[in-house]
Write a structure and sequence with these properties.
With about 70 residues, the protein is an alpha+beta fold. It is about 50% helix and about 15% strand. The protein has a two-stranded antiparallel ribbon. About 10% of the residues are buried.
Length: about 70
């Protein structure tokens, strides 16, 4: 099923294919934002990926007893 949403940063509207037709408008907008090519959306994806890598590194390298 195709749903329409808009990018949180630039407002561009896009149709996306989703399996779950019960998504809220906010969830659809988040999916559209994740796929948007605007500079702000790209920047936020890079920040999130960096934060994820840092968290994984800390979990792996830091002694849990510390």
């Amino acid at each position: 099923m195709e749903l329409s949403g808009s990018c949180e940063y630039c407002g561009q509207h896009k149709m996306i294919e989703v399996e779950d037709a019960n998504l809220t408008k906010a969830e659809v907008d988040a999916l559209v934002t994740d796929q948007c090519d605007c500079s702000q959306a790209k920047s936020e994806r890079r920040k999130a990926e960096t934060a994820k890598k840092i968290a994984e590194y800390i979990d792996k390298e830091v002694d849990p007893a510390a």
